[in-house]
Amino acid sequence: MNNLTGLDVSQYPFYPRSAAYRELLPNPRQRVEERSSRYGVFPYSERHLQCLWADKHWRPDLQTSVAEDVTVLSPGRWNLEAGPDFLDAVLLAGPDKRRIVGDVEIHIRPEDWEHHGHSNDPRYSRVIAHVTYFPGTIKTDTLPGGAMQIALRDPLRSDPEFSFENIDVTAYPYEVTRTELRACAQALNQADDPDAQATILMAAGEERLRIKSQRFQHIMAEQGEEQTLYMETMAALGYKHNRFPFRLLAMRVPVSQLQQMTCDADSAYALLAGVSGLLPEKLDSHWGADARAFVRRIWDTWWKQRNAWEHAIMDQTLWQSASIRPQNHPRRRLAAAAGLFGAKPDVFTRLTTLDTGDARNWFRQAKEILTEINAPAFWQHHLGLAGKRNATPVSVLGPSRAAAIVSNVFVPFLAATGKPIQHLLDHLPSQGGNAITRQTATILFGRDHNPALYRNGLREQGLIQIFHDFCIHLGATCEECPFPSSISARFPPPDHSVNVGQ
Fold it and tell me: Which end of the chain is more exposed for a tag (fewer CB within 10 A), N or C?
């Protein structure tokens, strides 16, 4: 029996199983989203805000609700136990730069302080700053004496190049996997339903994709559909190490201008490489004749446009190339971007005209969009500027990265535009797993589990969502995690009691 059915899914018709997964959360997201209408939707989590607070690279200039400037000398220690989010932060406040030391609590909305019951909780008595995304204030007598109220939305919006999508929440402190069998694994092992593991993973996978679609809708409202697809695909081309600079490049060279000012992949590459700062200033003696001729040709196009784009040229130090395989070097990934968005027909046109009704055919065609790219000819036979020419063509985008973009960008993007994608979900390609999926699978299923259980794209998405919702969002207190009891409530163990009277 499937114990994750029978719930109202009318609000999210493309992700019918995601509502069931939200019922496993201690504070189901659908209730939070309904309550968010007063402010507008914030399609990210408190953890995004925590990461932003912890990292000065993302943290904006701050002001209190009474317009006092705040300088963060130390954000404090990230608290993985119960209590405030950060302990022993050091702040300077006001024109006199008074030094304040204490704890920091972070929420999405101001009233979350009271909704979460912090007003009378002694663990929050040392809070010196209540930091929220949305502006607004709560009564000062509900906060510890002198606590500042700081809102992040407006200072973040003042930076047109900031995006929460650039924050890798998995790069910040989270629990180290233990060797003993966890309570959630025990609950799943004891479940009477033999399909409990698969059912939970698929429901969680749909929830992850639903959240992505909601975020895309949020971006579309400001950027439009075509620019949103462009930005998200560019960020995915950067993978983990260069996600931020690729997204930044997409913002500095919008897709409308890229298509207006270029006529083919070569001219698109010249513009992207020039603005990115990755176009070499000089020819290298180690390059072969092909590379030298290619760079000269790109410069012949770029120098005519350089003055007009001088204000947008990125600092080369934003890009990471150390320890990156040649086929994944950002210069080569720019060739994929140029072929995808500079050549005709472009990705947006090709993707939005595919029929989602035939899942297998759709995935084949979607992958072809990403692997059969009309990129600059040089990059179809070279892995790098200093490498030798390959006699046979080499795809500028490999099958594993293509599969990741199809699952993480194309499918949720189409759902955000209103195209039906539910027929695609059970056919998502596997991305081969990563450290997060392996760690979460070990937590859920034990060290000796069968990896075949999650060799499916939707189930891999589910592992990642569970990791975000429970393994890091709720901190390192595994013993207090509500997931095992949620599992047992949905999938109770078999009843072995014997009725003696019969």
Answer: C
